[in-house]
Amino acid sequence: MATKINVRSPFYLKVSQTNIATATLNLYIYTGTFVANASVANPKYTITKDVLTSGFIVFEVAELIRDYLEIEFDGTYSSQVVWVNAIISTTVSSGSASATVSPDNTNGFVAFDGYGYFHEGTNPELSKGALISNNTIFRLNDSNVRIPVYTGDTTSVAFFYQGVEKRTQAISSSTNTNAQIDYVTVSGQDNNDSYEERVVADGGTLETSSCLTDFLRQLDIGLVDEVYVASSAGTEVIKILSTEECKYEPYKVTFVNKYGALQDLMFFKKSVESTNVTSEQFKASIFDQSTLSYKTYQHQQQAFLAQGKDRITMNTGYVNDDHNSVLEELLLSEQVYYTEITETEEKVIPVIPLTKSITYKTSVNDRLANYTVEFEHAFDKINNIR
Fold first, then answer.
1. Which domain, by its residues, includes 14?
2. Number of domains present in the structure of the chain
3. Using an 8 Å Cβ cutoff, are 23 and 90 in contact?
C-alpha cells in the first residue's frame, strides 16, 4: 500500500548511506493507473544534492507535488489525488554500501491536498479510514450525506438505523487515482441529495404544490443514524443526526478538509446576503469656457473602477462540541463552495470565508452552540474576465 502524503505540510525523504556524496531524486507525479518505479517515464523534477551532514541527504517534496494537484468542485464529488514515485540514486566517496530511503519509497506515494497540525509531527499520514475529523454529522431531513473514506485501507462501511443494520457497502482498493477516495452515501445514491432529485433522476415528474412540499418535508427515505467505517485501524462510528428546518433556507457548504477530501457542512439557520461595493473617484473639469457655464446635471465628482462583491452570512444552528474541528478546518480551507438551489438548477458558488477567527464552544460552557460564518463570493459582481 502506498504511503499517504498530505502536501499542505512538508514531506521529507531521507536517504541514508555510508560515505554518501550525492543523491539524485527523480520525482514522478501523475494521475490514472499506478505504475511501478521502473516503468515510469518523464520525471516532473530531477534534483541533485550534495551531502551536508555525514551519512544522509534530505529532500522536501510537498510543495513540488502540490503544483500538480488541482482541486475542483462543480457539484460532483470525485477522488482528486496524484501518484508520486520518488526514484533516488546516489554516489559515494568510497565503499559500496547500499542506500536506504525513509519513508520507504518502494510502493510509491499517494498525495492528498491535506495537512497535519504542528503537534502531529513530520510526515503525518492521518486517518486511513474516514477522511473527516468529526464523529457526528447533522443533516436536513431527506437529504443525502456523503462520507469520504480512503479506499487504500477501508474495507467496508455499514449503515444502521435504531440499532438495525440496513446495508453494508464493501470498499475495494484501487490502483487508479480516481478511486482513492470513495464518497459513500447514506442513501446509496451518489448524485441525488433529496427525494425530489431521485424522482427526477428516475424519469419522473414533480408538480409544485404546497401540499406536496409539506408531504415531502415529512418523507425521509434511506434513514440512517449510525455509520460504521472499518479499516486496519479499527472501526469508527459516525452518528447521523437528522433535523427539520421549516423557517429558514438551509445552505450546504462544501470545502476541502485537512485530509484533502471534500466535506459538506450544513448551515440550517438564518442567513443574510449583502453586496460590498468599491470604486475610485476623480474630480472632473466640467466648465465650458466658450459659454462661461457648466451643466448642473453633470458629475463633478466622477466614479470609476466601480466593482462589487456579494457576501452571505450563515448560521449553523445548534451543533455539538464535535463541530469545533469542522469549523476550524473550514476556515483553514483554500477551496470553499456553497450550493445555491433554485427551482430550475443547482449552482455551485466559490467563496472565501471572511470570518478569520472562532471561539470554540462547548456544552459545558455554552450549553447550546451556534456558529456564524461570513463568506464572500470568490469573484467580482461585474463580469471582467477578459
1. 3-120
2. 3
3. yes
